[in-house]
Amino acid sequence: MSMIRDLRAAVRPSRVSLRKETGVYDTTRDPATASAVVDCAVYRDGMRVETETPLSPHQAMRQVRRDGGFVWIGLHEPTEDEFAGIAREFGLHPLAVEDAVQAHQRPKLERYDDSLFTVFKTIHYVDHDELTATSEVVETGEVMCFTGRDFFITVRHGGQGSLRALRHRLQEDPELLLKGPSAVLHAIADHVVDGYIAVADAVQDDIDEVETEVFSPGRKGTPRGTDAGRIYQLKREVLEFKRAVSPLLRPMQLLSERPMRLIDPEIQKYFRDVADHVARVQEQVIGFDELLNSILQANLAQASVAQNEDMRKITSWAAIIAVPTMVCGVYGMNFDHMPETHWKYGYPLVLSITVGICLGIHRTLKRNGWL
Can you tell me the distance from the alpha carbon of 58 to that of 53, in angstroms, rounded to the nearest whole number? Predict the structure, then answer.
């Protein structure tokens, strides 16, 4: 039972150390070789079986069938031809193989005769100095897992979501690896969901920043608003986040609730904890989406209010200017019989009345908040 008590600590390091260890762009694939196999190892009695030369998937499986244990094969963006031999060796279902090669799959859990096929969407927060209308906030990748009785295969797509550091941590906990492939599946699920939590916290900071800008005082104490394009871009990135998180809840609930012969009973209960964390992040993301809708509507309303204020000011000055325009128009008609034009005090009187009316209109509009 000590293994179970330490399981969370083994597979869930702090978020800060997790990012430092993994390196979000560490593909772990050697660019000098055409092979998609990142790592291939046999684990027996909770320990990695060391070999003088790297094992091929076929050699690793022969060892497992002869001496026991399980094999863990990691691949990064394999082609159809590269994956075909492994699929035949382990008897993987053609539909799952097609999904693993093509990528761009929805998070899901599928059960076949002798294996489980699980798809995870990995999320990476893209650091940026300033959020703009074209900023990329989150990047997505994929991790597909084939879980069998004596094998575990991971297929990664995308430049982030490396599992190298996770593999090393598991190798330091032999009691956990004794539980077989199901322990590795749980560790990967927990690792991916921990990434969701970290990204959710970072996205929350971006939303808080936009919200502050929208409602911060501008001229004369009124909210100044912000660029609607920034809000819309952030909303699109949150939608991408939501597509990764929401479909994963049901698979994690199935793994935690339904007995499965490929999942160790002692490991299964820990999938409930992963499902709870997925549900929490899902609620956060839904809240982000609704909050951004409200912020966008508030920003548009502020833009309308600002336009109305400008129109009121323009209308007010037009009303003031209309008075001298009308007076000048009347006295500029050049009729012969206009008594005021021949009166000694006509000009100063008309000018005084015009100025007085303009000042009265200005004072009235000022008092009513139009100017």
Answer: 14
How far is residue 141's CA from residue 104's CA, in Å, rounded to a whole number? 9
Minimal CA–CA distance to 193: which of 130, 285, 104, 319? 285
| CB contact at 8 A, 269 and 299 | no
**How many Cα atoms within 13 Å fall on the side-chain side of residue 208?**
6
Give the span between the Cα atoms of 109 and 250, in whole angstroms.
9
- Sequence-distant (≥ 6) Cβ neighbours of residue 214 within 8 angstroms: 223, 225, 226, 231, 295, 298, 299, 302
For residues 305 and 188, which has the higher predicted lDDT (pLDDT)? 188
Q: What is the rounded distance in angstroms from the CA atom of residue 263 to the CA atom of residue 261?
A: 6
pLDDT beyond 90 at 232: no
Look at strands 115-125 and 70-76 and give their pairing.
unpaired
Between strands 70-76 and 151-157, the pairing is: parallel
Q: What is the rounded average pLDDT of the residues 32-49? A: 82
- Residue 369 pLDDT greater than 70, yes or no: yes
Q: Is the pLDDT at 333 greater than 80, yes or no?
A: no
Mean pLDDT of 225-240: 82
* Contact indicator for 103, 207 with CB cutoff of 8 Å: no
Q: Kindly list the strands in the beta sheet with 37-44, ordered across the sheet, starting from the edge strand earlier in the chain.
A: 47-48, 37-44, 70-76, 151-157, 138-148, 115-125, 108-111
**CB–CB of 100/83 below 8 Å?**
yes
